[in-house]
Amino acid sequence: MKLTNWTISLVNGDPIKRSDFTADDSVQLHVLDRGVMVRTLYPTRETTYPWHAIAQLNTEH
């Protein structure tokens, strides 16, 4: 399965990119009503970026 590259450009701060993470299957991107959640599986960590903090969300397959 080919990975989907994505970038979350924040209003204030550095963008978060799929390429910031190393393991192929260790990160998930979830689009929620309240914002976008990035979940890493090893180690388990969840960070939600609220919509008002996101300037742009890009995906590329």
Could you please describe the fold and organization of this structure?
There is one protein chain. This protein has strands at 5-10, 16-17, 27-31, 35-41, 44-50, 54-60. The protein has 61 residues and is an all-beta fold. It is globular, with a radius of gyration of 11 Å.
Give the arrangement of secondary structure elements.
Layout: E1 5-10, E2 16-17, E3 27-31, E4 35-41, E5 44-50, E6 54-60
Antiparallel strand pairs: 1-2, 1-6, 3-4, 4-5
* Helix percentage range: under 10%
Strand content: over 45%
Describe the oligomeric state of these chains in a short phrase: single chain
Number of helices: 0
Which descriptor suits the 3D outline?
globular
Biggest β-sheet, characterized? 3 strands, antiparallel
Radius of gyration: 11 Å
* Termini gap: 11 Å
* SSE string, helices as H and strands as E: EEEEEE
The strands making up the biggest β-sheet line up spatially as 2-1-6
How many strand units? Answer: 6
Which keywords apply here?
globular; three-stranded antiparallel β-sheet
In short:
By secondary structure, the protein is mostly beta strands. It has no helices and 6 strands.
